[in-house]
UniProtKB/TrEMBL annotation:
Lineage of origin: Bacteria, Bacillati, Actinomycetota, Actinomycetes, Kitasatosporales
Keywords: FAD, Flavoprotein, Oxidoreductase
Protein's name according to its UniProt entry: FAD-binding protein
Domain Glucose-methanol-choline oxidoreductase C-terminal per the UniProt entry, residue ranges: 588-710
PANTHER family: PYRANOSE 2-OXIDASE
Entry-linked InterPro entries: FAD/NAD-bd_sf, Gluconate_2DH_su3, GMC_OxRdtase_N, GMC_OxRtase_C, P2Ox-like
Cofactor: FAD
Statement: the UniProt record of this protein carries the keyword Oxidoreductase: yes
Source domain of life: Bacteria
A GO molecular function held by the record: oxidoreductase activity, acting on CH-OH group of donors
Domain Glucose-methanol-choline oxidoreductase N-terminal residues, every copy: 350-497
Assigned protein family: Belongs to the GMC oxidoreductase family.
């Protein structure tokens, strides 16, 4: 791909002059020399190609404006780069304020300048691998380091293991597992180790740790918020639409849009890029309706199983996958038979002041349990404390995902075939409505190839949106609205987690870039808060990237978007910035749901998911509670300025983080999709093994519950297949 060049080429000189005033030199190179000379032409020819015409036109009009202001006419031959630096700054400020004297026509000078500022900031504050931060110059300015000095960095696996070729897939298996994330990966392992022949189907590719490098523009977490680039661990925009249905109508959206509700799609699913917080749900989480009643308009219900029934499976997940932590201090921890297999990871610098603040307020705290090796475990080393964890793959392979734990065990049996780049389009039923096969599709040599694979059992772990979509795309004469959907329950009760909390600025240094970051948590507000249904956990957050910190401080009004003050401000405030936040226990709504959009299809011609509804208004009480408690905690910890967030009701379904609930389990087919063992009602050989099963989603990260349920559901399936 050829780098972008403006027409005429001399406009590149104007761009250089502009960039070097937006990111000026101090005791460091200016933006152009720091790497934006490489980044901007490349990005404007690639990911941001749609913005190239705006930038090109804007550069010409900037020179035109310069002439109009400084030489008395538009053909004076004076360009922006000819002005003194102070004059350039004044012109930028006035244009950003909407004061344009020359005729800009349809091009908005403010939009043009803000576009260059945004793209420039992405390059300048982003990772060196994208070319805009040459040799990490901006990282050194703020003190950010990806890993502690001198920390060992073991070489990850050079290539993924060989997967089964499309032509080599057998026509029949004991079980087909769709999706290789937390639920599907565990299910494949349990079944294969029980002696069954398994096909594990993954629509993404098998990315190595190196393939999931810390790309600060395309990391899963950043894409979910900002949406400027296709995610590394997700599907590309091309051929992967969804439909977002809101109050103003329907709109086709793509994976970089937050309304798409992106989940990682690669072997290992979300476990490849998750933050790995490994909380157990507490006993109250399984009986929310009994504790609180059912708010009007909600579908709040009790689970058909208890904490005590799931506890042995929690323990199995903690020890087989690997969790580091210490449950002491967790006010809502349920009974447990064994401790965690590893001690907590090392603490970030903010833990000490937060511990002092919690003691002053009388709050109980505990370390954050993490699916990360704090010591050598299961044949892999312990975390070295790198600062790029959530949203990225672990370069040292210390994060425990299904790709490096249970899936290798499944492969080692010789009874598990893994196919990647393959989609499950629908489940195939016979004349009596029994599921007998799954229809698969893959792209090959520019076309689409399809085949059906028969099996005795089918376990679905594609995520709450895609599992519901698969069932809805599998109608039969007996179930015309989709498999298991005669009671119109498939796809309903879609939920995730809204977050609330507070940012804070300290006088002391509280960010030492020791990762992963989450070090201290307070669980005192999980339940029994007056006037609130549920609540949530609060903890300090992951180490922010410089680009995240820039965007946060800009949104808080603490730094300008450009100029010397922006760079010096971030340099001063990055080490003093902290955040305490947590997920709010959402009250499910039957109107927040996944349906099909028959008129919109993916690259394979299959109707895509349509997302509609919004979280229940009861959640606002929990959000306000967590924001208030986070503010109090940070102030007691010595913060000089605190900025609460998250107290506004969302207008779209809450599925971007921790999507769950669309195939909820229950005791009654009229109000649920599966029985307490994950079997789809009316289909004893079809089970769900992902968070679609969740009746409620807890006030904590739900991945450990997904893992535990998968062990439970797949274990029963293995017994019934024997």
């Amino acid at each position: 791909m050829e780098p972008w060049q403006p027409t005429p080429p001399h406009r590149l000189v104007t761009l250089r002059a502009l960039v070097n005033r937006l990111f000026p030199a101090d005791d460091h190179p200016a933006g152009w020399e720091a790497g934006l000379d490489t980044f901007l032409p490349r990005i404007l020819a690639g990911d941001a190609a749609a913005l190239a015409p705006l930038v090109e036109t804007g550069l010409g009009l900037l020179d035109h404006e310069t002439c109009a202001r400084h030489a008395g006419g538009p053909s004076c031959g004076v360009s922006f780069h000819d002005l003194a630096e102070g004059e350039q700054d004044v012109l930028i400020e006035e244009l950003l304020a909407g004061d344009a004297r020359a005729e800009w026509g349809v091009t908005d000078p403010e939009e043009f300048l803000r576009t260059v500022v945004r793209l420039g900031a992405q390059g300048f504050w982003g990772d060196p691998g994208n070319g805009g931060n040459r040799d990490g110059v901006s990282w050194r300015l703020v003190g950010y380091r990806e890993r502690p000095d001198g920390a060992p960095w073991p070489a990850p696996e050079p290539d993924p293991p060989a997967v089964t070729d499309w032509e080599a897939v057998a026509g029949h298996y004991d079980a087909v597992v769709v999706g290789s994330g937390a639920g599907g990966g565990v299910a494949a392992c349990v079944l294969a180790e029980a002696g069954h022949r398994v096909l594990l189907v993954e629509r993404g590719t098998w990315l190595t740790p190196a393939g999931l490098r810390a790309d600060h523009l395309r990391g899963q977490r950043r894409v979910a918020v900002h949406g400027d680039y296709d995610p590394t661990a997700g599907p590309p925009a091309e051929g992967n639409p969804r439909v977002a249905a809101g109050q103003e109508g329907e709109e086709i959206v793509h994976p970089a849009d937050h309304r798409w509700s992106n989940n990682a799609m690669t072997l290992g699913g979300g476990t490849r890029v998750y933050g790995a917080q490994a909380w157990r749900f507490c006993p109250e989480d399984f009986r929310m309706a009994s504790v609180y009643g059912v708010p009007e308009g909600s579908s709040l219900a009790d689970w058909p199983l208890t904490y005590e029934e799931l506890a042995p499976h929690y323990e199995r997940a903690e020890w087989e996958i690997g969790v580091s932590g210490d449950p002491r201090g967790n006010a809502f921890a349920g009974p447990r038979a064994r401790p965690y297999p590893m001690p907590p990871v090392r603490a970030n610098a903010v833990a000490a002041p937060l511990a002092r603040g919690a003691e002053e307020l009388g709050l109980s705290t505990s370390p954050v349990p993490l699916l990360i090796n704090s010591t050598a475990y299961n044949g892999r080393g312990g975390c070295v404390g790198c600062a790029a964890c959530v949203g990225f793959g672990c370069p040292g392979d210390f994060k425990n995902d299904t790709r490096n734990t249970v899936i290798p065990r499944a492969l080692a049996t010789g009874r598990c075939d893994v196919v990647t780049g393959v989609r499950a389009e629908h489940l195939v039923t016979d004349s009596g409505g029994r599921v007998v096969a799954v229809a698969l599709a893959t792209s090959r040599e520019g076309g689409v190839e399809r085949r059906q694979v028969r099996a005795r059992a089918f376990l679905l772990g594609a995520g709450a949106i895609e599992t519901a979509r698969l069932l809805l795309n599998s109608p039969s004469a007996r179930e015309p609205g989709g498999l298991g959907n005669n009671h119109d329950q498939v796809g309903r009760h879609l939920q995730g987690h809204g977050y609330a909390g507070a940012h804070a600025l300290f006088d002391e240094v509280v960010q030492d870039c020791v990762g992963p970051g989450p070090s201290i948590a307070c669980n005192d507000f999980r339940h029994h808060n007056p006037g609130v249904v549920g609540g949530g956990m609060l903890a300090n957050d992951f180490v922010p990237t410089p680009l995240q910190a820039y965007q946060t401080l800009l949104s808080l009004g603490q730094i300008p978007s450009w100029g010397t003050a922006a760079i010096r401000g971030l340099r001063e405030l990055y080490p003093r910035l902290a955040m305490v936040t947590g997920p709010v226990h959402e009250v499910p709504s039957p109107e927040s749901r996944v349906t099909l959009a028959p008129h919109v299809k993916d690259a394979f011609g299959t109707p895509v998911a349509r997302l509609s509804g919004r979280p229940h208004p009861s959640d606002l009480g929990g959000k306000r509670l967590l924001a208030e408690r986070a503010e109090s905690w940070l102030r007691a910890s010595g913060a000089r300025a605190v900025f609460p967030f998250g107290t506004v009701r969302a207008t779209t379904p809450s599925a971007g983080q921790h999507q769950a609930g669309t195939c909820r389990m229950g005791d009654d087919p009229a109000t649920s999709v599966t029985d307490p063992w994950g079997r789809v009602w009316g289909h004893a050989n079809v089970r769900v093994v992902d968070a679609s099963l969740h009746v409620t989603n807890g006030g904590v990260n739900p991945v450990l519950t997904i893992l535990a349920l998968a062990y439970r559901v797949a274990g029963r399936a293995a017994e019934e297949l024997a």
